[in-house]
Amino acid sequence: MSGADARLFAPAVARNRDAILAVLRDVLPGSGLVLEVASGSGEHCAHLAAALPGLTFQPTDPSPEARVSCDAWCAGMPNVRPALALDAAAPGWPVDRADAVLCINMVHIAPWSAALGLLRGAARVLPAGGPLVLYGPWIRPGVETAPSNLDFDASLRARNPEWGLRRLEDLRAAAGDDFEAPAVTEMPANNVTLVLRRA
């Protein structure tokens, strides 16, 4: 960040944004509100909103610096609302309904309570059939975890013992009857996109 430019930069965004967009074109509705949880820098939101003008995007993040960055990246975009403060683990969210919920690269760099809160919150705001879309690295039953992901998991846990790659079966168990079983799409760099539709 330099001078008056409040934009933050996440190098991974340029590598994964088009792959994420390709999945979202198939799973998001043609119109309505997309609630993005943990928007981070706001680069994904700006890219997706530009490519999907029929949708309105609501970025959120618990970090004030991230929210300022989101607003800077999305300045002047008619289909992006100002970023809101939202803690996924909190019982109350500042948005009470959405047609889709999107969360990119949060679950492994947050306590498990954030993932549980994300499921609860998405179940509250989504209509039946509405998608909760998660992107990131996961440990999946019957699928060998890439060595790079194992190293990443170890580094995350060294930084914070509450962080780390999550097991897909734990997510399914936590989702309970609120969501259908996740549809899994393989993504570059040993990541996946999960789509859980509201039951």
Automatic annotation (TrEMBL):
Domain of life according to the entry: Bacteria
Pfam family, one: DUF938
Keyword Transferase annotated: yes
InterPro entries assigned to the protein according to its UniProt record, in alphabetical order: DUF938, SAM-dependent_MTases_sf
Keyword annotations: Methyltransferase, Transferase
Keyword flag Methyltransferase: yes
Listed name of the protein: SAM-dependent methyltransferase
Gene3D superfamilies to which the protein is assigned, alphabetical: Vaccinia Virus protein VP39
Entry's Gene Ontology molecular function annotations: methyltransferase activity
GO biological process entries: methylation
